[in-house]
Design brief:
This protein is mainly α and about 60 residues long. The protein contains two helices and no strands.
Length: about 60
């Protein structure tokens, strides 16, 4: 049970870090030139996927 609590806290911390990074990528994409915007949009898609996977890990730990 303690292991699950520790994992949950680590995943929550990871989730928050990923949300902050996504916000920064989105902000940078809005201000970027078209060539850089494409790369930043790709980073945003990947970061959203990481967030989805982290949310799934949290669900698993909480089961």
């Amino acid at each position: 049970m303690l292991d699950q609590l520790l994992l949950r806290e680590q995943f929550k911390t990871l989730q928050e870090t990923q949300r902050e990074a996504l916000g920064q990528y989105e902000s940078a994409a809005r201000d970027a030139d078209p060539a850089a915007r494409a790369d930043l949009d790709q980073l945003c898609r990947e970061k959203r996927r990481h967030l989805e996977l982290t949310e799934r890990l949290l669900e698993i730990v909480e089961e």
